[in-house]
Design goal:
Number of strands: 2
Helix content: over 70%
CATH superfamily of the largest domain: GntR ligand-binding domain-like
Distance between the termini: 22 Å
Number of domains: 2
CATH architecture of the largest domain: Up-down Bundle
Strand order of the largest sheet: 1-2
Strand content: under 5%
CATH class of the largest domain: Mainly Alpha
Largest sheet: 2 strands, antiparallel
Oligomer: single chain
Length: 232
């Protein structure tokens, strides 16, 4: 069953505005877990909720498919994508490989003031950690990662990361980390930022690999545990 945000229900509109509203509402419902992996998406029901035709719904679903959140197959109803341990492992392997390049590019080309600002942002993640919920902390982590990625100066990398951003966020929610796990990664992130500032590409790459390996293991372990609990 699709549950739209109450603020979105019965809102009408046309064109890109309606497509954006449908996309954002479905995206939020999938990432939050309100719509579970593998669940069928009812296009007619969504169109009725938004007071629109099925055309904007189809367009929104195409965008969600591009981000890997749903699957569209001929002669089958759209479904939320299935998630597996392998999918989590593959995503973190790709992120690890990309961060090897990002580490080198940042050390080689990012200006000192930008690296100092990034280090301050990493330190603030630790300082504010006790006062924030896990969800608030993760939003700040995403802001840090976006700032870090921009410093690599490669638009192709930014485009790839943009295409992965909602799947990364989704997997984070499915394998939600404990406060202790988030704290470990926050400490690691500061060490990476300090390695950038020291212009030590080899250390930054090694730290990033270690941090993402831990993050992947945490996500995978928590995902498996949550599935086991849900099946009881």
């Amino acid at each position: 069953m699709y549950h739209a945000n109450p603020l979105d229900i019965h809102e009408s509109g046309t064109g890109e505005d309606t497509v954006a509203k449908i996309f954002e509402s479905l995206r939020a419902s999938i990432i939050s877990g309100e719509i579970a992996p593998g669940q069928v998406i009812n296009s007619v029901e969504i169109a009725n909720h938004f007071g629109t035709s099925r055309t904007p719904v189809r367009e929104a679903l195409l965008i969600l498919n591009q981000y890997g959140l749903i699957t569209l197959e001929a002669r089958r109803r759209p479904r939320v994508a299935e998630v597996s341990v392998k999918a989590i492992r593959d995503l973190y392997a790709l992120r690890t490989a990309m961060h090897a390049y990002i580490s080198e590019a940042i050390v080689q080309s990012a200006p000192d003031d930008a690296l100092q600002a990034l280090r301050a942002q990493a330190a603030q993640l630790i300082e504010r950690f006790p006062d924030l919920s896990s969800e608030e902390h993760l939003l700040n982590v995403e802001a840090y990662l976006a700032a870090e990625a921009r410093l690599c100066g490669n638009n192709v990398v930014l485009d790839v990361l943009d295409s992965l951003k909602w799947k990364i966020s989704w997997f984070r929610h499915l394998g939600l980390m404990s406060r202790e796990q988030l704290g470990v990664l926050a400490d690691d992130r500061l060490r990476v930022a300090e390695a950038y500032l020291d212009r030590d590409a080899r250390l930054a790459e090694a730290l990033n690999r270690s941090m993402l390996r831990k993050a992947g293991q945490y996500c995978e372990m928590n995902f498996v545990r949550s599935r086991a609990q849900a099946s009881r």
